[in-house]
Amino acid sequence: MNITMGDVDSIYGCFGKNYDYAVRLVVRMADPVDGKMLASALRKTEIRYPYLLVRMRKNDSEYYFEDNPAPIALFNSERKIRLNSEETNYHVWAVCYQDDRIMLDAYHGFMDGMGMYKLYATLLYYYCNQRYGVTDHTGIRTMEDKIVSPEWEDPQDFLPPPDYSEEEEPVEAFSITKDGGIRDDSPVNYDIELPEKAFVKYSSARDGSPGTMVAILMEHALDKWFPERKKPIVCTYIINARPMLNAEETFHNCLYSAHFNYGEELKKLPLMMQNTVARGITMYHMEEDKARNDLACKVQYCRGILRDNPKIEDKNRAFAGIIDADARAQTCMVSYLGRWKYPATDGYVKELWNHVPAVNDLYIGMTAVGGKLCLSLQQVFDDDTFLKLFCNELRDIGISYQVRSRSNIDTAYFPRPE
User: Fold this and answer.
1) Phi, psi of 366 (to 5 degrees)
2) Looking at the domain that runs over 8-156, which CATH code has it been given?
3) pTM as predicted
4) Phi and psi for 410 in degrees, rounded to 5?
């Protein structure tokens, strides 16, 4: 299987930067996990997703995927594992469990958060089917459903040539580590719980959404941490591009982004207006023609890199340059996977945390389940200043919060393939 255009920059770029580009989705269940039932559910999930049973390989000129008939690995442990290695039967995803938690480790260069969500939903359905007798699988892919090509096709492979006249010039953003002088050698993760109903009510009343509201609060906190700076704070807001690409079923990376520039003009506006601006920017980027053209520009650029760099190490360096350019254009990042949409498992899935690798200075991954907003704050520095400032922002607007855990980055290793 060749690398698709939605995945290509993440794969080559992250190897060029020596990033282990894997995500861990952590679910806390209502009861301790039954390992035998989970193993059975995993075997059924494998059958439903044959196109996700692959191993990454390489030659002198490219990375590629090949079919992998070995079983997906299951570990009764919460330790960091090593994907695409003997430990995990050379698969690009695996499952761990411990106590009342189930953890899906997946290579982000192969699938994005929404792709992982669908895979996870199938696994949890089959587990809850055995553990609790759940039979409703509305919206969940099961072995009863026909496997169709839109599930494994990448819509970005088929985009037409773009109109380059619409490209936007990026702004050089303030960097916490490079401009703020904060050391980036001790990454940590904080899991923070908020009441979903109260936060949604507050943000909606001020013309915001949960994701844009968190982005604005992050910028407020950073502005207080670094009030004297020459560059603007810019928050990158991740957008799921599937609706604009008419490709709801794909597992591939269909990520797009908007940028909220917290400059002096925006800073002077009241909170509602700041939210209005952020939502307007988001809606503009969600217009189908805009999104498709921007993604087509990226695809054409990536194709040029592939064409002009015949050796694999040259490709790694070139795509690493894209990651560096993206980093210069952002201070922090927010990604909201949305509310868990599978009612069959309601009552059994208590929490869902989105842990990411330490590739951004500051990142919040958001999910919603069981009446909670679960915010996973990843930062590349061991300093709780931002955490305290962000929590102060929540306190100031009357939102309760609970810092549930502090941990080292637990996402999987992903070594370069053989």
Assistant:
1) -115, 145
2) 3.30.559.10
3) 0.95
4) -110, 10
